[in-house]
Amino acid sequence: MHVNSYSFQFLTPQHRLAVLSLNQHIVDDPQTTFFMEPLRKEILNFCLNESSGFGIGIFAGDSLIGYRLIYFPHTKSEVFLNFQGPQYKIDLRLPPKEINRSARFAGIAIHQDYRGKGLGNRLMAEAIEVIRQKNYQWIIVTCHPSNHPSLHLLKKFGFYPTDSIKKENGRDRILLLCELNKSARI
Fold first, then answer.
1. Opening angle at CA 132, ends 126 and 134, nearest 5
2. Which of 17, 66, 103, 182 could form a disulfide with 110 if both were Cys (CB 3.0 to 4.6 A apart)?
């Protein structure tokens, strides 16, 4: 898949260091540091394992400039790998049997030099299409309440808020769901 001078491709375990490096670069960016958290290696491993998830990368030449990570949880605890502990009382508003029919967006990042070019929109569309092809019914994601560009993009694709998650580090999250047979096709 090519768009202008960018290529989109599935990420493999060989891209692990590039994903972690881009994630750290964005975490360190003053414009996004409050929204982004360091990517947990456990989550990245889920996403880069073909049997439990996938990732789509955007490349400018050989350089990874963006990614969307997705994994397929089987239990509520797998849905909320970033939110473990008794302090988190999260209402998924999804019957337990539906978790096996759900995909979890685990991270998105686009290098600041490449933002505003529609790449996040394209990553979202590509990821949703792959999830549809795999016959999943739901997509689950969390987003910081002040991350207006991401919230706008999620709502554009049919995501709706279901709960708020208060985190002790101040990086609160909104839980959003998307039912694929009702979401917009872009």
1. 105
2. 66
Q: Which residues contact 107 (CB under 8 A, 6 or more apart)?
A: 23, 39, 43, 47, 67, 68, 69
Residue pair 79/104 in contact (Cβ under 8 Å)? The answer is yes
In tens, the pLDDT along 106-156 reads 988 999 999 899 999 999 999 999 999 999 999 999 888 888 888 999 999
- What is the pTM assigned to this prediction? 0.86
Residue type, 140: I
Task: Encode burial over 105-133: b for 16+ CB neighbours within 10 A, e otherwise.
Answer: bbbbbbbeeeeebebbebbbebbbebbbe
pLDDT tens-place string over residues 76-93: 777 776 665 544 566 667
What letter does residue 113 receive in the DSSP assignment? G
Residues 103, 68 contacting (CB under 8 angstroms): no
**Distance of alpha carbon 107 from the chain centroid:** 3
- What CATH class has 2-179? alpha beta
